[in-house]
Amino acid sequence: MEDPTSSEAVHEGLSHAPLRVMSARVTLGTRLVNLRSRRELLHNLIISDIRIKYKGSALGLLWSMLNPAFTLGIYYLVFSVVLKNGYPNYVIFLFSGLIVWNMFQNAVFSATGVIVDRAGLVKKVSFPREILPLASVGSAVIYFLIQLVVLIIFLFAFQHAPEWNMLEILPITFANLYLFAASVSIVMAAFTVYMRDMKHLMEVLLQLWFWTSPVVYSYSHSLAVQLHTHHLTLFYFMNPMALMVLTFQRTFYVSTYVHNTLAPHAYFQMLPSWAPSSFLYLNLVMLAIMVGLFLIALTIFGRLEGNFESEL
Amino acid sequence: MKTTVVDVADVSKSFKIHYERHQSLKERLLHPRTGHSEDFSALADISFTMEEGETVGIIGHNGSGKSTLLKCICGVLQPTSGEIRLRGSLAALLELGAGFQLELSGRDNVYLYGTMLGFSKKRIDQIFDDIVAFSEIEHFIDTPVKFYSSGMYVRLAFAVAVNVNPDILVIDEVLAVGDERFQAKCIDRIRRFQQEGRAILLVTHSADQIRALASRAIVLESGHMIANGDVADSLRIFREHLLGDTPSNEANEHHSADVHIDSVTTPTGSFDVQSGASMHFDVHITSATAYSGNFVLEIFTRAGVLVSRSDSQGAPINLRPGHNSIGIDLPNIPLLDGVFDVNVGVVDPRGSNVKAWGEKVATLQVTYGGRQGGLVELDATIRQN
Question: Contacts of residue B167 in chain A, CB cutoff 8 Å?
Fold first, then answer.
């Protein structure tokens, strides 16, 4: 929407003002243009989202770090200390996958109910409705960035150098992560309006999803061989989270072959030994798929939003 | 040349009505076939346009589709078919403070609400002080709005919407906010909007407000547009339709059509009167049955301001079958010179249903030779103490 012109200019100005058309179907192009023109609203919603979440809590934004820190601590305790998986530098391995997963889970989980929760707003104020789930994704991005900073601090603390050749791929992986989280969030937010137990279903589904992504365990060590013998590798990678997690792990954890911490002379494979160029190629293919997925998600949302008013 | 700012073309909107709502997965799986829904047409082929500088009022009963139409224009709802074209920026007051976040301060909410209405942060920065001054909550602007009184809450929301100076302002029955002084301020602001040539679309239950503010009125009746034109004509049509729309349809429809206001006469045959003089009207009413109700007399200025409304409260008029004549005595008319419209009507004793209505059945021509100005004679004596 244009800035309103000053009062004197109204008379001359309006004949040249942009024409907005509202009809039964909003085309995908218009949808994207509308979204772009309302960036400031998105920005404001994200800020108010984060402010409200930590309002009145003494530790404030620190919670967004404490929460994953606890998860990290628990997994470390269970898998490294109690179950003795023998992975060296397990904290770094775990953390580099977990930030990717956390971003996805935070985004999808908070976006799922967002339109139902803000029904009052949706029924009374006009704005592109996709902005609400996108704001949830936006807050998740902020938490992701905070956790990324903590990960970098960890790398310094453990004196663990990342794979420099992989760093340039990370922006693409991040774009994939954002587009995928946004697509799932947008569709789930719309579905929840029609079926309220999507939120509970999503809770269960996200747990399952977490364990099918190689965050806690090593893909190459625990799964790769079995998947290959059963011709399930492709199926496993249908989960876009798998490649994203592996790319982050390869960048920050680096080592493909590692010493077993329990048996000094035993080696095993921790991460796929693909070259950075293969990672780049795979991520670019995924980017194309994710852009398509995002457009499909917007289209589905457009189909569903017409009846929001009568369902809310 | 005037630009068309709102163009509503053949807009229809239908809703699904659920007889049984199955919103959980379990219910949907268990009852895949039940939970029928039926399409309900809330708006049927509505078309009208608005030019810049126009103020259009929309009236209709509850459920006539007024709010649905406004929501379509504001983009809250998508029309099922048809198209709405808008030129310029639009701010809608469908519900004041709908976008407010209770936990956030008034200041944060001004920015959030402003961007939600579609205005840039830069623009809100410029007018932030005006918004705060208009809302009169300077001291509380940094307090979370959950601590606001309901009056403060709506004042802040109204202040944001009018101070962003939209080209088109859409108002849905929200003018009844705040105390009387704040209402007067809102009306003032709306008049300034009109002078600046902005377009205003106004939905209200109050015929007075339509008369006072609107230059044109649209009447909606169960989703159809039954009038679009001059305020007085539309109000007459609206009132006439009110007759056929009382509960328990048939009996009442039949009944209410029995009372009809035929004419208003004066003994001299002239409606010219000197200010301060007395006047007598005879209202001729035909009634098919005996009916006991309240009689209402309204006097309006040509600009649509209600000067006075009186009724026979406490002493109902008893209409006999056939021709009836009701006398109205005005002992001394305190009006100053001008032309005044007279409406008369018969309403049921509870005042909820209009039995018969005569819009502008007479026009008073008041002449005045004195030195006072305005609408009424106060007879003020001014002396030095």
Answer: 4-5, 10, 14, 17
